[in-house]
Amino acid sequence: MSMIWPEVRKILQHQLPESVFNLWVEPLRCLAEDNQTLELAGPDRFFCSWVADHYLAAMQEALGRLERPGIRISFRVDPDLADDRAADEAGVAGGGKEQLRLPQMPKGRPRIRTLHPRYTFDEFMVGESNALAFSACEAIAAGAAEAEPCVFINAGTGLGKSHLAHAVAHHLYNYSPSTRLCCLTSQQLTAELVRHIRSNTMDQFKEKFQRQCDVLLVEDVQTLSGRGKTQVELAEAVDCLLENGRRVLFTGAVGPREIPDLDDGVRSRLAAGLVTSINPPDMQTRRLITRRKADYHKLILDEEMVEYMAEKVRGDVRRLESAIVGLKAKANLRKAPPTMAMVKEVVATVVVGGDDPGLSAEAIRDFVAAQFQVSVDELQSKSRKKDVAFPRQVSMYLARKLTDEALAGIGKVFNRDHSTVVHSIRVITEAVARNGSVRGQVEHLTDKLKQRQK
Asked: How far apart are CA 160 and CA 124, in angstroms?
């Protein structure tokens, strides 16, 4: 049998936001696949219907990229979960209740299938880059008196923001089952709002998110951009919850000040509590992650192998896991324990350009300067002339988009502070959304930079 579904998953994982992939693709199970059909199983009818409506097109596009466009995708309820189907329909799918809300002292333990099973506090590797975010989430989960009631975690792809969000939900589910938890993405919040507006049941929406919620957890907040009605309802809910001593956790790919087309009142609420970033893990944390993931996959690595992988595979933590998975596959194929030669082979496929850690803000700055025919000195100068300021802003935008460097590190390359980088990202983000010419230039530069890595 050909392995179609793993390849489709891999493409979707790179295309979809981390939380969306974990919520709607990760739980799917492939029941059967051949040259004509791909049969996928989800936990319940609501889940299957949602995935078919929202992500079928992306799956079909992935099949096209794999040169298998003729395969038909179908969805069905997972037969292994048939015993739980009635509970699903009475709760999440059919009863209009929030997706991950924990009912008051349930008689049976309901399953929360959209939480990643390994995204727990015990599995999270704490280092200097994420310690503040970790401790803030632990305090929210424990309901500690000293906990900041409103927390916003800002991080790039694969750095752990969804892991921490799911860890909070897991902790509440296991240790505080009477807590009423509303856990969803901002896209799901918008979809639920639209459903209540169409059914003329906004009183139920407000009841759920303002009065029947102890902890509100909203992921992918950056997608609130331009969604005015959702922003208004979220602001009302946050005000009501915080006034009544409840807890709120937000996660986003960018900070509150960087989200375009956001109402000032909403922006101030998102930024009112603790705003913390998760930066790429440092060397020590990468060592810990490498060891933990190797242990999980039952791989025995010596210190030299761990050191090499931690040194070469930087940024997105998923790349480290990808390297470990690839190493296990190679070792199994050769029916031999991992060797340093195997490690180097695998790392060369995970890290673009072999030992090259990839693009840097400095390399992007120099490339953009050459493309716009301005000097690096001009980009680093205080000049505000448009023919200098625009390339500078584009360089900062691309550095944020294509590297794992922190805002302060990007700013340093241009002799600026992080606030200037934030402003530049916002300016270019809005320009890309509204101006086809700017969008074309940015896409062209992005493509050329990615080609330089090959």
From this structure: 8
pLDDT band at 114 (very low <50, low <70, confident <90, very high): low
Both tokens of 245, joined, read: 């001593």
Measure the CA–CA gap between 188 and 219, rounded to whole angstroms: 9
What are the residue ranges spanned by the domains of the chain?
4-80, 104-278, 283-350, 361-453
Q: Are 94 and 195 spatial neighbours (Cβ–Cβ below 8 Å)?
A: no
Task: For domain 104-278, give the CATH number.
Answer: 3.40.50.300
CA distances from 39 to 42, 113, 420 (A): 10, 19, 49
Q: Among 205, 179, 172, which residue's Cα sits nearest to residue 190? A: 205
Name the CATH superfamily for 361-453. DnaA protein, C-terminal DNA-binding domain (1.10.1750.10)
Q: In what order do the strands lie in the sheet with 29-33?
A: 29-33, 37-42, 72-77
Is residue 152 a contact partner of residue 276, using CB atoms and an 8 Å limit?
Answer: yes
pLDDT by residue (tens digit) across 221-263?
A: 998 888 899 999 999 999 999 999 999 999 998 888 888 888 8
Neighbours of 154 (CB within 10 A): 24
Q: Please state which CATH number belongs to domain 283-350.
A: 1.10.8
- Over residues 14-42, the mean pLDDT reads 84
- pTM, two decimals, is 0.56
- CB burial of residue 22 (10 Å; 0-12, 13-18, 19+): buried
| 383-416 tens-digit pLDDT | 889 889 999 999 999 988 888 777 888 988 999 9
